[in-house]
Design brief:
436 residues, alpha+beta, 3-stranded antiparallel beta sheet, two-stranded antiparallel ribbon, 15 helices, 11 strands, globular, HNH_nuc, HNH nuclease domain-containing protein, DUF222
């Protein structure tokens, strides 16, 4: 018989997390009951518990974000840590980060969320709606949106009204936008409306079709990434700065590199490839070559780039082109900054005597280039057979969480505690999981 007993009054947060993790691990291995009504009830109960777990998780993430602990572990931002360390999708990481940053302003919502009377979906919707409002408007918006929750509006309706709240505030301040003259715009045509505000600024709203959205993402996405540890802007602010940079001509023109063998250009069938490894049919590569600038990229045995020159300190343009073809992203594992926007890094460090030779260079983003220079002992370097370096960041040894006394496999010495203040879970010997 395996059991878990925890004193809710005296247990530490770490002990509660350990018990919750143990219960979740056991629950995940259990087969679902055959009864659909029972599964429906279990789903509703477990979903409510998961919502309260998300409330605790938002508190933990908020402390990590405020303390900027992730920078000591080699991550440029909290959102990057959530994506790469916890495996969250971009939208999910952004949603949880927004909740952790707004929960201190949404006191009533937080209290109801922690007590289980408001779901995670409503909480994230309201937090996203007030993220760019000042404190006064945030309080008013919280009251209005929670009122909609009490009236059983769906999360989608609350989100729609949350977007409308910003327009209501603009109307109140005399900065509203004129109504759209054509409310039946064709969805295949992109559109953007701009209206000048009273203080000389400009409001922008619109919609991009799939093709134009891909251009937007490809041009602004890389420029909207965090610049480093001191970059406290949110994604919306970084996107605005990226758009301004492009409009002013302060960005680098986009280029596409197609790598192929000489035999392919002269009629061979070996496929070419893009810098990220995407294959290109030989015939298509020849069509591209007819209207593009073609320059040779010499490859040695095993497709390892040969030496393209040597300078005393900085890589040559030819060396950089080779590195961009070899490294589609920053050399640090998990970093997604494109190679074209990275800096050339001496693998063994220029100050330590590393030469500026092609097989001693790689690409890292500006933030990780500086981080590696100040934390060389925390970078594990490997090299693949095709000549590409990979940096794996090691956690700070002194910052590891203190070891906690592990739970004896499903057994904790019981205490004499009134039933309302303890949790006791007992698992009988294994039986047929499908038995009634």
């Amino acid at each position: 018989m395996r059991s878990v007993v925890v004193d809710l009054d005296s247990a530490s947060t770490m002990e509660l997390v350990n018990v919750a993790s143990a219960i979740a691990a056991e629950l995940a291995k259990r087969p679902a009951p055959d009864s659909a009504p029972a599964c429906m009830e279990l789903t509703e109960t477990l979903a409510a518990a998961s919502d309260m777990h998300e409330a605790a998780l938002a508190g933990f993430i908020g402390v990590v974000d405020t303390g900027r602990e992730v920078q000591r572990w080699g991550f440029p931002s909290t959102q990057s840590w959530l994506r790469n360390r916890l495996g969250m999708r971009e939208a999910r990481a952004k949603e949880r980060l927004t909740l952790s940053r707004q929960r201190h302003r949404l006191t009533e919502l937080t209290g109801r969320w922690e007590s289980g009377t408001v779901s995670f979906g409503y909480a994230s919707t309201i937090a996203g709606a007030v993220a760019r409002l000042d404190d006064e408007d945030c309080k008013a918006a919280e009251e209005i949106l929670l009122g909609m929750v009490d009236q059983s509006f769906s999360a989608g309706k609350v989100a729609s009204f949350g977007r409308r709240i910003r327009d209501v505030i603009a109307e109140r301040d005399g900065t509203e936008q004129p109504p759209d003259a054509d409310t039946r715009r064709a969805y295949e045509r992109s559109w953007i409306d701009t209206t000048r505000s009273l203080d000389g600024g400009r409001y922008i709203k619109g919609w991009l079709n799939a093709e134009d959205a891909a251009i937007w993402d490809g041009t602004l996405g890389p420029l909207a990434k965090p610049a480093g540890t001191d970059d406290h802007r949110d994604l919306s602010e970084r996107t605005a700065a990226a758009l301004t940079s492009v409009l002013s001509g302060g960005h680098k023109a986009t280029k596409v590199t197609v790598i192929c063998e000489l035999d392919t250009l002269t009629g061979g069938h070996a496929p070419a490839r893009l810098a990220d490894g995407t294959p290109i049919p030989a015939e298509q590569a020849r069509r591209i070559a007819l209207s593009a600038g073609v320059s040779p990229l010499l490859l040695g045995k095993g497709s390892i780039p040969l030496y393209l020159g040597r300078t005393e300190r900085f890589a040559t343009p030819g060396q950089r082109r080779v590195l961009e073809s070899l490294n589609p992203t920053c050399a640090v594992q998990g970093c997604e900054v494109p190679g074209a926007l990275c800096e050339v890094d001496h693998v063994d460090g220029w100050a330590l005597g590393s030469p500026t030779d092609i097989d001693q260079l790689t690409l890292t983003c500006g933030w990780h280039n500086r981080w590696k220079a100040t934390n060389p002992h925390r970078v594990h370097i490997t090299k693949t057979p095709n000549g590409r370096y990979t940096y794996r960041l090691q956690p700070p040894a002194a910052s590891r969480l203190p070891a906690t006394k592990p739970l004896t496999p499903w057994t904790v010495e019981p205490k004499t505690i009134p039933p309302p203040h303890r949790i006791t879970l007992t698992t009988p010997p294994p039986t047929n999981p499908r038995a009634p």
